[in-house]
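Backbones bend. We report:
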Amino acid sequence: MPESVKQGFTLRRPSLDDAAWIWRLVRETGVLDENSSYAYLLLCRDFAETCLVAERDSQLVGFVTAYRPPSRTDVLFVWQIGVSSMARRQGLGLLMLTELVSRCRCEGGYGVSFVEATVTRSNQASQRLFASLAKRLQARLVHGEGFRQTHFRFGHHEAEPLIQIGPIADG
């Protein structure tokens, strides 16, 4: 799907040239788990149809990385969402998620019925963001077991319970 301009942001699929900027933005947020730059290259190349970047004045100011689990193609699993400090508190996170869900429901001959993510309980900003997405999609939000703290065996990491939004109604 081509780029779109909403609320002054250009929303589009990422390209390989965006991967380094996404990695840099992850580092700058200070709250997201930092993956290798190679992981972001793979996301931008192999999963571009389920990822999104936002630009303002030709500068990358936000991104969503997501994928469809191979055994559950009706699910969009959101891996990371990042918004630069210059674009925070403008509704960009919700705008990007809403746009990405809309695109994934229209493309590829099959739609998305559920959005999932794992989010630590202490990440109140993301908790509120997914609650807002559920409200916007007029869908149920339920919490389930995602990853327990013991799954992160080495190093300290909070548990990441599962958030599931859906089923998403057509319309």
The chain is about 30% helix and 30% strand. The chain has a mean pLDDT of 90.
